[in-house]
Amino acid sequence: MHRSDGMMLGEGQEIEITGIIMRSQMIRGQSIATITNGNETYKVIGKEPLANGIAKVSGILGESEGETVLYANSVETIFGDLAKNECKKIAEGAGKTIPIMDIEPLVTDEIMNALKPKIAEAARKILTARKLGRFILLRFHGDADGVSGAMALTKLCRMYAIQQNSAVYSVKDAMKDLAQIHYETMPLVIILDFGSSDESAEGIQLLKASGAEVLVIDHHPCGEKIKKNSDLFVSPWIVDDAQNAEHETFGPEPKTLNAKQKTGDPSQYPAGYLAVEVARAGGLNNENYEVEPLSRISCAGDKSGIMKIDEKDKERALVLDYMASYSGFGNNLDFYENIMKKPELFQSMLLQAKEKIEQIYESVGKTAKITEESGIKIVSIDLEKLAKKHEFPSKGKIATRVFESTQHECSNTGKPLVVIGYGGGSVVFRVNEDAVARGIEANRIIEQIKESMPDFAETGGGHAKAASVRVRDGFEQNVAKEAVEIIKRLVGSKSIS
Ligand SMILES: [Mn+2]
């Protein structure tokens, strides 16, 4: 700011500031960096190179190329817990001044209203990180839901986005991320559309221990550990009690979750949709033409009925799934966005995706085994030869295709249906509404498989209507057989109670 006498405001004044050092570089023998304490931000000019991190800088305000700069006299770098606490304090202070939109969610029901404070908090965390120039790492699940959510969040601010092709945030994933964020000051790591299960807990613990702030946005059934590990967990499985916002209803037991009681299946709120709400709360609600359609793609991708979707949404979701199954790690969000804007390429991808599903579906018909157990129609499909690793369609997609055509026959009669696909190191389940009503939930089947075959079933989980479990190679069919026994038991116990 200039004064009438040409002097800069505060020029010549001696100040001391403790803050986050960003964008530190050496130019022509001078050290130039930015320091912010959340309220004030200065360009710092000094002789010694400044390390990114937390520092206490004292010096004299002056002017350089028309802007106020701080000529550093002394710089004291702050390390360890002291730095961590200082950074937390700065982030909290900066967060308070960030305006968060109080807007109606696109889906207005009890769950979404109850989730509003968490969604606002997530937006605040992201915008605070942006304001302080902190590094933001986004790990998104590699399917239409995860990709559409990632698109929404990256519209809010720049972040480094990595696709995650597994449903579990493993220690290996954490190691990769730690290598990336190791030198950053309080980086923000966002985990989108996965990471809720206890199997991800160890990986997330490592992130936390490294000093990162962890935000998980997910809609998969959650384990007990996630709440302790993440700084903020946005999930329809854990919502604030409307009567008493101080108390959160939480627990691995579905019966203690009010979300479950109210809706039947909290998984129905896809992570991509939740991410869209975060983006809207962060200020993108006026750009609905850009952000809002992404929520419909996520619903189409995850087969959620919480909002109206059309054929176009389904096509976009299919193409994203198609692309995602061929994309490895790395920042490929731009790639996804570009394809969506190229009608010809989009159409040919859509055609290929549809053709591939139909081809596989035809050959599945020859090997499918259809049985009936306790009034439940069970279709078992051997996916060993059909599904190729890292290619489209995935085992899940094949199971869904079989499920959809069989469901077509079942829906008229209200017949419970379970599709079990096995092979290639995993077993996948698709369950219809009528089967869920009889107590058969895909994620429950998997929980019981883990109990009865702990040596064969590894990680796994999912929703009531769709879930998968990784099993030891060569034992897929055994696990599928055990699943049929579990289904029989579940039906039996339901009819007793
Ligand atoms: Mn999802």
Topology:
Layout: E1 14-27, E2 30-36, E3 41-46, E4 53-64, E5 67-78, H1 80-96, H2 110-131, E6 136-141, H3 144-156, E7 160-164, H4 171-181, E8 188-192, H5 201-209, E9 213-217, H6 226-229, E10 232-234, H7 258-263, H8 271-281, H9 288-301, H10 311-326, H11 333-340, H12 343-367, E11 369-373, E12 376-382, H13 395-411, E13 417-423, E14 426-431, H14 433-437, H15 442-452, E15 457-462, E16 466-471, H16 476-496
Parallel strand pairs: 3-5, 6-7, 6-8, 8-9, 9-10, 12-13
Antiparallel strand pairs: 1-2, 1-4, 2-3, 4-5, 11-12, 13-14, 14-16, 15-16
Helix pairs in contact: 1-2, 2-8, 3-8, 3-9, 3-10, 4-5, 8-9, 9-10, 10-12, 12-13, 15-16
The chain binds manganese (II) ion (MN).
Residues 145, 193, 219, 270-271, 302 line the site of manganese (II) ion (MN).
